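[job 4417] fold queue: 2 targets
>>> target A
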Amino acid sequence: MLDIKLIREQGETVHNQLNRRGPGTSADLDRLLEIDKQRRDALNQSQTLKNKKKTLSAEVGNLKKKGQDASGPMEEVKQLNVQIKEWDDKSNSLDEQVRSTLLKIPNLPSETTPDGADESQNQEVRQWGGKPSFDFKPKNHVELGETLGLLDLKRAAKISGARFAVFKGQGAALLRALIQFMLNTQTRDNGYEELYPPVLVNEDSLMGTGQLPKFEEDLFKLRDDELFLIPTAEVPVTNYHRDEILPEESLPVKYAAYTLCFRREAGSYGKDTQGIIRQHQFDKVELVKFVKPEHSYDELEKLVADAESILQKLNLHYRVVNLCTGDLGFSAAKTYDLEVWLPSQNTYREISSCSNFTDYQARRAMIRYKGKDGGKPELVHTLNGSGLAAGRLFVAVLENYQQADGSIQIPEPLQLYLNGQTQLG
């Protein structure tokens, strides 16, 4: 959530920055400022009446002390109470309108986020590794997975519907190995503390990270309880410190969490319908950081490197892309995507998004830090990134390590997690 004081004092700058995301993005600002002015006027009116009431109450006390008639000022106090309540009710109503409007306004993009209308204008930052070469036509992950008995999409559709998968036999073992490998790398090598959070969260948690109120249509909600299935571990892990003040010396705080994730994928019909690239249920290891504001962009670069380390250890070719303003997530100020190479499609596909949210989520969730020397608590900056999406990593391993005979070579770092097995199929 943006700071209302910033909008008041630097309205034109905020307007221009928001419109970098697309024409009309700042449309709510004028209405917001008008509501905020009315709210502050109501507060002033209430305070003026309260001061008057205080003076009259003192007069009532003095008259009574002297044994004189206080009925006149007492009646005035009674009338003032009615007026004060009216102004306080109006102020509270306007305050709620200000907050609800602020919740629908996205974060300001970073100065280092390139301008652009959509993903076609994202900027490639670098590539790592080389594309695999085959002396045969590479198969896609669906054909490989079904032929080797690693995936069963037909029975998954029978059980649940479209965009679900059953990982089977060696396929289930490979997925589990990938998750364990990612968790071990992030906790043992990259210094993250592991959390295993709930996958059901309340509305306040989704408000805190920015999924609500704007993106409710993409969430699965329980029928009988006010709970939602998480779209990403970012939600429970970021809200782990909601309404808390962290000691300055504890920063940066770094968490890694494996969870199932659930998304309705509203509005994505027709995109990635084949295979397991875009699923309603999927596995992911998430990385979350709470950092001091002056360090957040340096910490973003480190976060990206931590996510990259998984792909590098598995020797998978990928590229890093700086998302443009038109492709930037609602709560993010800057995002790098990692895109892994898929031979069957002859293209790169997103496998991780790493974002700096500056103080946007922290203001919504009231996550602050305070130094040893006291002083007023300040908002932290929050960051998160996939480290990585396990299903898409499964796809990348199958396609990049396929052999001419249809088998899959197991990357050396994963063999430890598969009892020394070197090949699937």
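>>> target B
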Amino acid sequence: MELNLFTAVEQGEVMTQVALKQQVGVSVGLVKRAVNKGYVKACQVPYRRYAYYLTPQGFWEKNRLVAKYLETSLSFFR
């Protein structure tokens, strides 16, 4: 789920937290947790919308999750 969140945030679309929740299928709490951990930066833009950006920490975490996913997938097919 976190990987889906990081991928959606990486696109750089401006949206509300609820729209991000619906698009990715995660809770608003996960979005807030990612912001608190420093993986995602949220900048408020007009009318209750936010622009979400991946921080350098977020890019590293996304890369780690992708590597873990690939490792798990390859071991499954072996």
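[job 4417] complete. Note on B: The mean pLDDT is 84.
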